[in-house]
Design goal:
There is one protein chain. By secondary structure, the chain is mainly α. The protein has one domain. Helices cover about 55% and strands about 0% of the residues. Helix 5 packs antiparallel against helix 7.
Length: about 150
Amino acid sequence: MGRIFKATLWLGFLGLVGIQFVPVDRSNPPVPGEISAPDQVMEVLRGACYDCHSNETQWPWYSRVAPVSWWIAQHVRIGRNNLNFSEWESMTAEDRAEARKDIWDEVEKGSMPHSDYLRMHPEAVLTEPQRQALLLWSEGRAREFPDWN
């Protein structure tokens, strides 16, 4: 191997090691007012939504390895900024109504849970009854939930 190639490999390796020391915020702030929803909905929210949309993120081992850690932290930050179930009770009634509409839109389109999340968390793929429960709840029709248990 040529000297330039070896030097490039070493620099790349040292760069990968070096970026591991760049701090990433993987905190879970306090939960001021968690959402109150029927058990079926809470089961779905916790299994498919909470990692990005709550202050109860389960940070996997790979969230500690740069540059993946930066990407995951950014997704969680964006998810919490868009909708944070841990702050649901502190939202105004109008904001909660708007959030329910957004949830309905995203679930109906199939764009949530996000496909990037589903690649690493296939258990978060929504079954049709789970999807229907979220849609009914987001419409305010919680009494019509299908029973999938």
